[in-house]
Amino acid sequence: MAHRSHTFLSAFTGLGGLDLGLETAGFRNIGCIEFDDVARASIRANHPRRRLIEPHDITAVGSALKPAQLGIKRRELFILAGGPPCQPFSKAAQWSHRAMQGMKDPRSKCFAGFIHLIESFLPKVVLIENVQGFVTGRAGALARLRRSLCEINRTHGTRYRISHRIVDAADFGVPQRRNRAIIVALREGGRFKFPEPTSAGSPVSAWAALRSLSHRRWPKKPLRHWAKLLPSIPEGSNYLWHTRCGGGERLFGYRTRFWSFLLKLAKVAPSWTISAQPGPYTGPFHWDNRPLTPAEMLRLQSFPSSWKVRGGHAARVRQIGNATPPLLAEVIGRQIAVLLLGKRFRGNPRLAIANPACKPPAPRPPSAVPPEFLPLVRRHRDHPGTGLGPAPISIQLPDANKARHAA
Q1: How many helices (H) and strands (E) in the chain?
Q2: Active site residues
Q3: pLDDT in tens, 320-344
Q4: Is the pTM of this model over 0.85?
Q5: Distance of CA 213 to CAs 6, 217, 304, 350, Å?
């Protein structure tokens, strides 16, 4: 049970992955700040008594919310935790001239509200989880955060100092390859010692996470357009199978599509990164040649099977894809408790997923390419290399008349 003083305030709560991990590590939530109404419905579904702070917009509440309103004094909050909107710092944003704005992006203005919360509460720990571009991108937020904390230190006599690291969630038992930036700032100064990977040599496989889920709700929709190629691609591969560097037909130029195009899971390996806004042909797809269900995405993010997600299908996928893996958050939370509270933990994290002793079924061999795609077999131009262009080549699927003519 969390000590009264071992509290945390959650900003940009979303589906609650960061919150769930910190709570599992022994900390107590005293409030959530979440702008999205569907995400708030998900929070209520899992925690009916959770305090949802108003106004919900952090740009408004950041400078208005005071510690006394949450029943604590300044400097009593143990952790201020949040994952600001990642779109301005995502990998896709590094390719888009419109999106390559970082802190100039209107969506990043809410980060100023988060900084106001730091100054209002002066928490013992500031914890931020985000995409790699938050700390490494050309328009990242790390410099802004450092300047803001230096100003807070000068004004309030604190000694906030930033430690950050890019971690792969799969190295800590999450059944998903997901590189994330973890930023920790300690009020009393000093470097935060990040936990050592626990599963780097034996990551938890996608099959271990998904094997216990019910099959009754698997989608039965027929494959359409490019998705018809999925049965012809081996487990763990993507469209590159059908380039000069793969073992299939030469349907595409090498590296002319995004990596996630027709990307399939492999039973024996962790999942590829779950996306918040996947396109119709964006993976990862199940090894059974179908889209993943929201329940499967939740498990690959290390949420318990009982976790509830509200909204339509696209809204549920968005919430799941944007969430912090709770198991990763629990590992970070445990490390904070060990270093700052002297706490000792026995055994594996409570949210851990075990690799079973039995082996998964053998992968199915890829099937033949459907005849309608065979007119595309030819020598395609490859991408010439990083920074050399051209833009990814658009290949139009031939219609039936063109296919018959080509044949």
Answers
A1: 11, 6
A2: 86
A3: 999 999 999 999 999 999 999 999 9
A4: yes
A5: 35, 10, 11, 19
